[in-house]
TrEMBL record:
It comes from Pyrocoelia pectoralis. One of its GO terms (biological process) is cilium movement. GO terms for cellular component: cytoplasm. Transmembrane segments: none annotated. This is TOG domain-containing protein. Keywords: Repeat.
């Protein structure tokens, strides 16, 4: 190429730059576009390019400050083309562009107002850093880069913030030997991006913070550790994974890491129990590497453990994988600093903090093993509170940690701490932790302490709670204890029995489907009882003596009354075995001066219980049958007479009254009350009273105590009930009369009782003709047949002819009379 042509070629860019002085922005923009096209479409030597740069840079740099955004954007493109694409690496060119970066986007006061231009400038600076990476040419501009990035990382535009974080990482890689001189100044600016709403920015901020700390003094790590820990609460798993990754890098490579293990370990240990499988797997993999490196670095200190403690400890759970020695040793050397902080943060007002602390506690308990012993005094109170957290993630982790503590820490140690706390002010959080401690403890070690635990749980102040959650956790404690018991019948079994009976007797309605008296089946299995009845027989006497405290003052909600009701309904054979104590309690709790509602509830339970027991409690039932005004008293009488029917109901094979002498006092008291009840306002009471009188007749006949006087006292009242307005009562009376008159005393058949015979026959025939119910007529006919065997033939004949004239159903009466003649 001739000299003239060369001069013309190099003069062309200068001519284009003249247009950059135009007042028309379109002309200025076109000039820059032409200049870039010219650079791209022609080939130049390095010398020529340097000449072009020297001729044009004044104009293009001025264009970077142009008031028109489009011109500034095109000026950036021209400079990128020159510095990045055309010119060789040389810090000479950078001395012109970096002051502009600092001026436009690297000052506290916002100079470049356009977000797009700020982003383009930052992208330009990023490509320079990449091109000049690990070269001496970039070193003089480290301060300028950091000044720019300190501001751009705080930019409101998310793309600028994200790119700034990436630039920091690239700058650290580009100047590894010099970045440390300015790294600390980036810490606070980058921390502002940790809480930005876009997760990609948070992710990049955490990543670049890892590089910043690696090139900084200890103060940077101290500043960053707290915000890094907060990112463990991030809702995005990728951010939490990045925290774990950065923490593991620090643990492996930070030069003063031994002084900061207590700050770094929580960052990776929390990830071991993350909700996301991928995060947990990544944390486990990185943590294993950290532990193995620590083993190598401390091989002399850990030599004995590496040589001799190669097998799993006895009782180590099969479902757990024991961390390697280095991981355990790392945690054990720092647990004295981690545990107090954990205890504080478990009670944090922030839910996310409590969740992560629960996860960290699990990991610490697994690694620290018995090294947690001396820190339980601080940890346990915080765990009691956390076990009541509304967030189940916190609860699950705390209880899992409790199991591990129960496994590793001596039982005697945690018993001395938790049992006094429960005794002092029990709540369900303590019971939750206790059940998990018991569950985790090896049976061989906890066996000696079970009696102390059970004795405490059986205390009235502990087991007599009606709180729903408290009851659930108490039952969990009982179940955990039963899994650790052997088949030795000692006081331990009685304490457990007392706790079970109490908590079920006071059971909240929400717990009805969660536990019931089937818990006694677990007690039976653990202690080798033959049956549940044997459990009741073994422990009922002491139970009844404990609850027999002023029964007359019981109310419906009195604990002792609720327990007694459970005993009546569930005790089986033990009911009869403890009749004396039962009678003593009932005589007081069913006293007419006792609380009416309490008496009613007890009557209901007693009636249900006596249906299958036939136990006599006349000293309790008889007083309640006495009439008193009011609906409550009426309900009491109904329940009392129901109980009498249960008591008297034969067929179980139990001799309630072995001798006639034993039944007479009872009948003397009971019969008049039952007769008065046949006229009670309650139809149910009338119905039951007739049934009871019928049962009395059956028992008295068997004991040869059925006399004419008793018969003459009873039958008139039953006969009156044939006029009762209630169909059920009338039917009951008709069914009872044949039983009453059957097997009558021989004395009653004498002629001097003929008046009674006539009255009975008249009444029966009248109702036989009046009542059109076929079933009732058949029952009345049965009554007349019984009377035909008692009255004389002449009496029957007289009554037949007398009533035949007046009856509507003469045919039926004639057929019935023929049967009378045959019977008589």
């Amino acid at each position: 190429m001739s000299l003239n042509l060369k001069d013309e070629k190099l003069a062309e860019p200068r001519k284009m730059c003249y247009n950059l002085q135009s007042d028309d922005k379109r002309v200025r923009k076109q000039a820059l576009m032409n200049l870039r096209t010219y650079l791209l479409t022609n080939e130049f030597t390095d010398e020529e390019l340097q000449f072009i740069f020297n001729e044009t840079h004044i104009y293009t740099l001025k264009a970077l400050r142009d008031k028109t955004e489009a011109v500034r954007s095109e000026a950036i493109n021209v400079m990128r083309c020159l510095i990045l694409d055309k010119l060789p690496k040389n810090d000479y060119y950078l001395t012109y562009i970096f002051p502009v970066f600092v001026e436009r986007i690297g000052t506290v006061e916002l100079v470049e107002e356009s977000e797009e231009i700020r982003l383009e400038m930052l992208q330009f600076m990023q490509t320079i850093i990449v091109k000049y990476s690990k070269t001496i040419h970039l070193k003089p501009f480290l301060n300028d880069c950091v000044s720019v990035l300190c501001e751009t990382v705080k930019d409101k535009h998310p793309a600028i913030k994200e790119l700034s974080c990436k630039c920091i990482t690239q700058l650290a890689e580009a100047l590894p030997d010099y970045f440390h001189t300015q790294a600390e100044s980036l810490v606070k600016p980058v921390l502002t991006a940790f809480s930005y709403q876009r997760f990609k920015i948070r992710l990049e901020a955490v990543k670049c913070m890892g590089d910043i700390v690696m090139h900084s003094q200890y103060k940077a790590l101290e500043e960053a550790a707290g915000p890094m820990a907060e990112r463990l609460f991030d809702q995005i798993p990728a951010v939490r994974q990045m925290v774990v990754q950065v923490a593991s890098h620090w643990l492996l490579h930070y030069r003063d890491r031994y002084s900061f293990f207590h700050k770094l370990l929580p960052l990776i240990l929390t990830g071991l129990n993350d909700e996301v499988d991928e995060t947990r797997d990544k944390a486990h993999g990185l943590w294993q590497i950290v532990g193995l490196q620590y083993e190598r670095e401390n091989e002399s200190d850990l030599k004995d453990q590496m040589d001799y403690l190669t097998t799993l400890p006895k009782y180590y759970p099969e479902n757990l994988t024991r961390p390697n020695l280095g991981c355990r040793a790392l945690v054990q050397r720092t647990v004295c600093k981690i545990a107090p902080a954990l205890a504080r943060e478990l009670s944090s007002w922030q839910g996310d903090v409590r969740v992560r602390c629960g996860q960290l506690l699990c990991a610490v308990a697994l690694h620290a093993e018995d090294y947690l012993t001396q820190h339980l005094q601080d940890l346990l109170p915080a765990m009691y509170t956390a076990a009541r957290d509304e967030d189940q993630r916190v609860v699950v982790n705390v209880l899992q940690a409790s199991e591990l503590i129960g496994l590793f820490v001596p039982v005697e140690t945690w018993c001395k701490l938790i049992l006094p706390a429960i005794e002092d002010a029990p709540h369900y959080g303590q019971l939750s932790v206790l059940s998990s401690l018991i569950k985790g403890a090896p049976r061989q070690y906890i066996k000696l302490h079970l009696e102390d635990i059970c004795k405490l749980l059986a205390e009235d102040s502990i087991c007599q709670s009606r709180k729903c959650k408290y009851q659930r956790e108490l039952v969990k404690c009982v179940r955990a204890i039963l899994l650790k018991c052997d088949q030795e019948k000692n006081e331990l079994g009685e304490y457990i029995f007392r706790t079970i009976v109490t908590v079920i007797s006071l059971r909240d309605s929400q717990n009805n489907d969660l536990f019931d008296f089937s818990l006694l089946e677990e007690l039976q299995k653990s202690f080798g009882f033959l049956s549940i009845s044997h459990i009741w027989s073994e422990y009922s006497p002491n139970l009844l003596r404990r609850i027999n405290t002023d029964p007359i003052s019981w109310t419906p909600v009195t604990v002792e009354r609720c327990i007694f009701e459970s005993f009546l309904l569930e005790s089986g054979e033990a009911f009869g075995e403890n009749l004396c104590e039962i009678g003593n309690i009932l005589a007081k709790t069913l006293d007419t001066d006792a609380d009416p509602e309490s008496r009613l509830k007890t009557f209901v339970a007693l009636s249900t219980a006596l249906d299958s027991k036939d136990e006599l409690l006349s000293q309790v039932l008889v007083p309640t049958l006495v009439w008193h005004a009011g609906r409550t008293a009426e309900a009491m009488r109904t329940m009392a007479v129901s109980c009498v029917c249960s008591v008297l109901n034969p067929g179980v094979g139990i001799d309630l009254f072995p001798e006639a002498a034993s039944i007479k006092p009872f009948l003397d008291k009971l019969t008049p009350l039952l007769l008065s009840l046949t006229e009670d306002s309650s139809s149910r009471s009338r119905h039951l009273a007739i049934q009871a009188l019928r049962l009395i007749k059956v028992i008295a006949t068997k004991r040869k105590s059925w006399t004419t006087d008793i018969l003459l006292t009873i039958y008139p009242e039953i006969l009156k009930r044939l006029d009762d307005p209630n169909d059920s009562v009338r039917m009951t009376a008709v069914n009872a009369l044949p039983v009453i008159f059957n097997d009558s005393p021989s004395e009653f058949k004498n002629r001097n009782y003929n008046g009674h015979h006539e009255h009975i026959i008249d009444t029966l025939i009248t109702h036989f003709d009046d009542d059109q119910d076929y079933e009732l007529q058949a029952d009345l006919a049965e009554c007349l047949k019984v009377m035909a065997s008692i009255a004389s033939k002449s009496t029957l004949t007289d009554k037949f002819y007398k009533h035949k004239k007046l009856m509507r159903n003469k045919v039926a009466l004639e057929e019935l009379f023929k049967e009378f003649i045959f019977i008589s």
